C-alpha cells in the first residue's frame, strides 16, 4: 500500500477501534436482529456485523444516520451539499443502490429513483435505539439490492408504564434540531409515538455558490403491539417524513427547491405455536414517496420535476426450532412496485410522463445448526421471480466458531447477492426492457479476540466480492451512425444515452478494528483498505470505482466518568477517490471533532460538539459544497 499523507494514522487505527460487534458488548450475550430476521446470539453469526446501541449513538451526537455510519468499518458516503441533499452510502465499495435500509422491520425504498433504492439523505437519528450494519451480499433473507449489505434501524421500545425522552439542540447556520418520544408498556399493549423537527440555513449546495441552500424537515413515527392471546400478537407501525431542500443548478446559485414526502405503514400478526418453537409472522406493508422540484425563476411553469414511487409488500416468515442446536427460518414474499415520473422539456412543452410497474415473488429458507459446542454452521437459498425478467436463485453458506472460553471468535462466509433493474432503468426514456439483474458473489473470513477481561478487543476481516452484469449509463456517440440503442424504444426519437448491463467490478479489502478501555479512559478506531476496481473492458479497466476511497480510518480518544461526564476527540480520514469513471480525483481529507457531555441531575444532561474543528476544505462529490467548522449545544432529558 502507498504511504498515507497523514503518517500517524496507521498507528492510530491499528491500536484502537470504533464499533464492532465484538467490542460493542459482551459477545456471548449480544443479540443481532438483522442477521436472520430473528434474534440470534452474535457469536453464532457468520457475517461481519456492527452494532450501535443507544449509549453509543448518543455519545456520537449524530444529526443524520449517515453521520455515524461513516465512522464504522468499510463505509463511505457522498453528499451533494449540506443536510437534506442527495446522499449515497457505499458499503465495501458496492454501488449506492446496492444496500438495503430497514426501519423496525419495514424495508424502505423509492421505486421512482434512478436505482430504486432507499433515500439516506432524509434519514435522521430520530427516536433511534439501535443500528445494525450487516456487510456483504445478503440477498437470501433481504432479496434484491442487498449486494453491499443491510442497514437495520430499530426505534425505541417502551419498558415502563410511561416513559419518554426529549432532545433539543441548536448551533451553526441557525440550525435547530428537536426530537421527542413518549410511550408505555402494559399487560396487553405496548405503544410509542415520536416526532422531530429540523431546520437550518445550510450551505451553498454548489461549491462555487454564494447563497445558502437551507433545509427543513419534520417527521413522525408510531408503534403499537397488542397481545391478543398468549400465542398471538398484533403489530402496527408507521413512519412519515416531510422535507424541503434548496439546491443549486450546475452553473451555481439558484432559487430552485425540492419537496419530499414519504410515509410507510405496516401491519403484522404474530403467532408462536408448539411452546414457542414454531413462530409465524404474516404482514403487509405499504410505502409511498412523492418528490417535486420547483424553480421560481421559470416564467411559465415553475414545477420542473414530479415523481411518485409506491411499494407494497406481503410477507410470511416462519421459524422452527427442532432443538437448541437446529433452527430453520423460511418464508415467502410478494413485492409490488409502482412508479410515475414526469418532467417538462422546457417552460412550454407538456410534461413527459412515464408510468411503470413490476412485481417480485420470492421464497427462501435458511438453516442454522450447532453440531458441537461453540460451532455454528448456516446456509440458505432464495428464489425470486420478477414479472419482467424471470427467475433468479442465490445461495449462501457460512460458519462461526468459538474455540475456547469466548475470548476468540472465528467467522467465515460465502454469499451471493443480486439487484433487480429499477423501474427507472427499465421504462423511462433512457431505459431498456432487456436489462438483466446485477449479480455478486463474495466471501469473507474474520477473527475477533478479547484480552484482559475484555478491556481490550481486536478484530480483523478480509473480504472479496465479484460483481457482474452491473447496470450503468452508456452515452451515445455524437458523430456517425447511431446504433439502435440510441433511440427511445418504439420510436425514432434520438436519446443521448441509455441504461445497459455493461460493467463488472471486483472488490477486496481488509477491515481492522480494536478498542481499549481502562477505568474511564478509552481509545477506539478502525481502518479499512478497499480495493474496488472496475473490471469492465475499456479505458476505465483497473480504475478504483467512483467515490470509493481506497483507505478509510476512524479513531476516538476520551474519558467517560461513572457519573456521566465525558469528553472525547474523534478523527475521520478518507483517502482520495475518483468522482466518476474517468473523472477528476477528489483529494483525501482528515476531519477532527470534539464532543463533551455534562450530567445535570439523574434525568437531564447537557452536551456539545465542534465538528470539522480545523475547518478543513474537502469534497465528497465534485462541484458540491461540504460543511465547514460547526458548533452545536443541546440538552437531553428522560422521564
UniProtKB/TrEMBL annotation:
It is a multi-pass membrane protein. GO terms for biological process: cobalamin transport; monoatomic ion transport. InterPro entries: Beta-barrel_TonB, Beta-barrel_TonB_sf, Plug_dom, Plug_dom_sf, TonB-dep_rcpt-like, TonB_rcpt_CS. A motif (TonB C-terminal box) lies at residues 622-639. GO terms for cellular component: cell outer membrane. Its main location: membrane. Keywords: Cell outer membrane, Ion transport, Membrane, Plasmid, Receptor, Signal, TonB box, Transmembrane, Transmembrane beta strand, Transport. Pfam families: Plug, TonB_dep_Rec_b-barrel. It is found in: Cell outer membrane. Residues 44-150 form the TonB-dependent receptor plug domain. This is TonB-dependent receptor.
Amino acid at each position: 500500500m502507498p504511504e498515507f499523507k497523514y503518517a500517524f494514522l496507521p498507528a492510530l487505527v491499528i491500536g484502537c477501534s470504533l464499533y464492532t460487534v465484538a467490542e460493542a458488548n459482551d459477545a456471548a450475550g449480544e443479540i443481532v436482529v438483522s442477521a436472520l430476521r430473528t434474534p440470534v446470539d452474535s457469536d453464532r453469526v457468520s457475517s461481519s456485523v456492527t452494532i450501535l446501541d443507544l449509549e453509543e449513538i448518543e455519545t456520537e451526537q449524530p444529526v443524520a444516520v449517515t453521520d455515524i455510519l461513516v465512522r464504522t468499518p468499510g463505509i463511505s458516503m457522498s453528499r451533494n451539499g449540506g443536510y437534506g441533499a442527495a446522499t449515497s452510502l457505499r458499503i465495501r465499495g458496492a454501488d449506492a443502490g446496492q444496500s438495503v435500509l430497514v426501519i423496525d422491520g419495514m424495508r424502505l425504498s423509492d421505486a421512482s429513483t434512478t436505482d430504486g433504492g432507499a433515500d439516506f439523505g432524509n434519514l435522521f437519528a430520530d427516536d433511534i435505539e439501535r443500528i445494525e450494519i450487516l456487510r456483504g451480499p445478503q440477498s437470501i433473507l433481504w432479496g434484491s439490492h442487498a449486494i453491499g449489505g443491510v442497514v437495520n434501524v430499530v426505534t425505541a421500545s417502551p419498558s415502563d408504564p410511561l416513559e419518554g425522552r426529549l432532545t433539543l439542540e441548536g448551533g451553526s447556520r441557525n440550525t435547530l434540531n428537536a426530537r421527542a418520544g413518549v410511550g408505555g408498556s402494559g399487560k396487553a399493549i405496548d405503544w410509542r409515538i415520536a416526532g422531530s423537527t429540523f431546520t437550518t440555513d445550510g450551505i451553498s449546495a454548489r461549491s462555487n455558490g454564494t447563497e445558502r441552500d437551507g433545509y427543513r424537515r419534520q417527521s413522525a413515527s408510531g408503534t403499537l403491539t397488542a397481545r391478543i392471546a398468549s400465542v398471538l400478537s398484533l403489530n402496527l407501525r408507521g413512519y412519515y417524513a416531510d422535507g424541503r431542500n434548496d439546491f443549486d443548478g450546475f452553473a451555481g446559485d439558484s432559487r430552485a427547491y425540492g419537496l419530499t414526502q414519504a410515509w410507510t405503514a405496516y401491519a403484522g400478526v404474530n403467532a408462536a405455536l408448539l411452546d414457542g418453537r414454531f413462530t409465524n409472522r404474516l404482514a403487509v406493508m405499504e410505502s409511498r414517496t412523492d418528490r417535486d422540484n420547483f424553480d421560481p425563476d421559470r416564467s411559465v411553469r415553475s414545477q420542473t420535476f414530479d415523481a411518485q414511487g409506491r411499494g407494497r409488500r406481503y410477507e410470511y416468515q416462519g421459524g422452527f426450532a427442532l432443538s437448541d442446536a437446529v433452527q430453520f427460518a423460511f418464508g415467502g414474499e410478494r413485492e409490488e412496485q409502482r412508479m410515475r415520473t414526469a418532467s417538462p422539456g422546457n417552460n412550454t412543452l407538456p410534461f413527459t410522463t412515464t408510468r411503470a410497474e413490476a412485481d417480485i415473488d420470492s421464497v427462501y429458507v435458511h438453516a442454522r445448526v450447532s453440531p458441537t459446542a461453540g460451532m455454528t454452521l448456516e446456509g440458505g437459498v432464495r428464489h425470486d421471480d420478477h414479472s419482467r425478467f424471470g427467475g433468479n436463485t442465490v445461495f449462501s453458506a457460512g460458519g462461526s466458531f468459538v474455540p475456547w472460553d469466548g475470548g476468540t471468535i472465528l467467522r467465515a462466509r460465502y454469499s451471493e447477492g443480486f439487484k433487480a433493474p429499477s423501474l427507472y432503468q427499465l421504462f423511462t426514456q433512457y431505459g431498456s426492457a432487456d436489462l438483466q439483474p446485477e449479480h455478486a458473489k463474495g466471501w469473507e473470513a474474520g477473527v475477533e479476540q478479547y484480552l484482559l477481561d475484555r478491556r481490550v478487543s481486536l478484530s480483523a476481516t478480509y473480504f472479496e466480492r465479484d460483481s457482474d452484469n452491473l447496470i450503468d449509463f452508456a452515452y451515445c456517440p455524437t458523430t456517425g451512425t447511431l446504433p439502435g440503442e440510441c433511440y427511445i424504444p418504439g420510436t425514432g426519437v434520438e436519446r443521448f444515452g441509455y441504461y445497459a448491463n455493461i460493467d463488472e467490478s471486483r472488490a477486496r479489502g481488509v477491515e481492522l478494528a480494536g478498542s481499549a478501555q481502562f477505568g474511564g479512559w478509552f481509545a477506539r478506531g478502525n481502518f479499512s483498505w478497499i480495493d474496488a476496481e472496475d473490471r469492465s473492458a475499456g479505458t476505465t479497466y483497473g480504475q478504483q470505482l467512483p467515490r470509493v476511497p481506497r483507505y478509510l480510518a476512524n479513531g476516538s480518544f476520551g474519558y467517560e466518568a461513572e457519573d456521566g461526564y465525558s469528553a472525547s476527540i474523534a478523527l475521520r480520514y478518507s483517502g482520495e477517490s475518483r468522482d466518476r469513471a474517468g473523472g477528476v480525483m477528489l483529494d483525501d481529507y482528515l476531519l477532527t471533532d470534539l464532543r463533551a457531555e455534562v450530567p445535570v441531575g439523574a434525568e437531564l444532561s447537557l452536551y456539545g460538539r465542534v465538528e470539522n474543528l480545523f475547518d478543513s476544505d474537502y469534497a465528497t462529490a465534485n462541484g458540491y459544497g461540504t460543511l465547514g467548522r460547526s458548533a452545536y449545544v443541546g440538552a437531553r432529558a428522560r422521564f
